[in-house]
Amino acid sequence: LVEAMNNDKNMVIMVKAHTDNRGSAQYNMNLSNKRAKATVQYVISKGIAKERISGQGYGESEPKVDCKENCTEEQHAQNRRSEFIIVKKN
Q1: N or C, which end of the chain has less CB nearby within 10 Å?
Q2: CA–CA separation, 43 and 62 (whole Å)
Q3: CATH number, domain containing residue 71
Q4: pLDDT tens readout for residues 58-73
Q5: What's the CA gap between 43 and 63, in Å, rounded?
Q6: In total, how many domains does the chain have?
Q7: Other C-beta atoms within 10 Å of 80: how many?
Q8: Nearest-angstrom CA–CA distance, 64 and 37
């Protein structure tokens, strides 16, 4: 991500962090917000301007695999993810 952003100085990214559905909805929202914030801080620490990256946690609200209470470990792992959305590109 940092390399891509260094190659395109106009690229702006939004980080979407997600959790699986284990734990309370509030816990998962807080966890995903912390993950998004940590990702943003890491990218900024690598020299990317803070105006070029933002982040938001979505908790368990947008599962990649909607398996409800019957998720396998693999499905839980797929739902725990960060996505990088290109908001602006050269």
Answers
A1: C
A2: 24
A3: 3.30.1330.60
A4: 999 999 999 999 999 9
A5: 25
A6: 1
A7: 18
A8: 21
